[in-house]
Amino acid sequence: MKRLTLILLFAAGLTLSAYADKGYKFTDGKLVKTTSVKNQFRSGTCWCFSALSFLENEIMRAGGEELDLSEMWIVRNIYFEKAVKYVRLHGSLNFAVGGASHDVINGIRNYGIVPEEVYRGLNYGTDKPHFNEIDAVLKAYVDAIIRNPNKKLTTAWQNGLNAILDSYFGVRPEKFTYKGKEYTPQSFAESLPINIDDYVSIGSFTHHPFYTKFIIEVPDNWAWDTIYNVPLDEMMAVIDNALANDYSVEWATDVSERGFSRTKAIGIIPEADVESMSGTEAERWGKLTDKEKEDALYSFDKPRKEKKITQQMRQEAFDNYETTDDHGMVIIGTATDQNGNNYYKVKNSWDVRPPYGGYYYFSRPFAEYKTISIMVNKNAVPTEIRQKLGF
Q1: How does DSSP assign 180-218, residue by residue?
Q2: Cα dihedral angle (154, 147, 88, 152), rounded to 10 degrees?
Q3: Do the domain assignments include residue 112?
Q4: Is 217 part of any domain?
Q5: Which domain holds residue 43?
Q6: What's the confidence (pLDDT) of residue 384?
Q7: What is the CATH number of the domain that holds 166?
């Protein structure tokens, strides 16, 4: 009971100053114009929702109108591409609904794009994406093809795959009318005020040389696409330069970290600030077990000191599977808490929800530590970094 009381007292921050700053209070800084918060619901399609949201922002930044582009158009077409590659590799590929931001770029390049109202992709009786059955059916189908019961693949299997996809997502329109004008998916993509070849992906890892491109080794990179590799400080400089010049940033990151709270919509990498503790407070801290200290650090009761992130820390977390590629969002601005600590304001695709209407705040150390990669307009990259990368 005594130990429990100690941790509760510490977590509550039992000082006069702690009462004053209970909880987090964010003040937004520079914000980029962005489209509405969407809802991926029960589908592992954050990669598509985030990348299309990013491109919607880019369209507005380039002077275009606000659009709601069809996520399921991309998902449906990419699922077909992934299935073909999975069969070609005898099943030695991650066949799941997950993907990466470059899948959206490749999808638009190969299949065009359509507005949401033209292709909602919900042809299975729900008004929101619900992929449990879709994922299971598609996996069972391609695994049956790989088992090759005829000892030779038939010429019908891809038609069968398309039939399944059309049944769940809907038949793809060859032409459609939008705001009084007729388009094909390709001509609609070409009508947008952006160049799909302007977008580059950047990360920061030491297991490949800096200023080169490499295939990022995460399971959802089924397409084996490459990213540019730069030192940590330059990756962060790209993010900062983009936001300062009205560009948003597509962000692939890890939200399995304990420092991320879904309910509080905050991501942090806290560290015990023993040096600033008073004598009594330091004494209480010293009596806590490691678990109690962890619980106190991750109580999200007030802003805390955060870890200083190094290149080595990033790499070790990636190498040890502590950093995994599990979510995509869009960085749309900066913010500070009541203590002046720096954060990024991030748009998620988990619907409009409290406490910040579907937006989340991630500390700068969290971004330094847990970023897998970013996608930006190449013109948002500082000139000196562009020169090093050769574009």
Answers
A1: TEEE-HHHHHHHSSS-GGGEEEEE--SSS-TTSEEE---
A2: -30
A3: yes
A4: yes
A5: 32-269+306-389
A6: 98
A7: 3.90.70.10
Is residue 202 a contact partner of residue 331, using CB atoms and an 8 Å limit?
no
In a domain, 280, yes or no: no
Rounded Cα distance between 297 and 274, Å, is 12
Q: Give the residue from 34, 40, 25, 68 showing the smallest Cα distance to 54.
A: 34
Whether 337 is in a domain gets the answer: yes
Q: Where are the extended beta strands (E) located within 106-180?
A: 176-178
All residues at 6 or more sequence positions from 127 whose CB lies less than 8 Å from its CB, including other chains: none
Closest CA to 200 of 108, 109, 112, 105: 105
Dihedral (Cα; 138, 139, 144, 148), 10-degree rounding: 100
Residues constituting the chain: 391
Which pLDDT belongs to residue 283? 67
Element (H, E) at 47: helix 46-61
Confirm if 101 and 249 have CB atoms less than 8 A apart: no
Quote the number of domains for the chain. Answer: 1
The Cα–Cα gap between 54 and 325 comes to 18
pLDDT of amino acid 252: 98
Q: What is the largest CA-CA distance in the chain?
A: 77
Please name the residue that has the structure tokens 């080595």: 312
Tokens of 43: 């589908």
Q: Which of 8, 67, 76 is nearest to 36 (CA)?
A: 67
Query: In which residue ranges of the chain is pLDDT below 70?
Result: 1-21, 273-274, 278-279, 282-283, 285
Q: What is the pLDDT, as a whole number, of residue 279?
A: 67
Pairing verdict, β 199-203 and 226-229: parallel
Q: Residue 285's pLDDT is what? A: 66
Q: Which of 389, 262, 369, 294 is nearest to 324 (CA)?
A: 369
Question: What confidence score (pLDDT) does residue 20 get?
Answer: 36
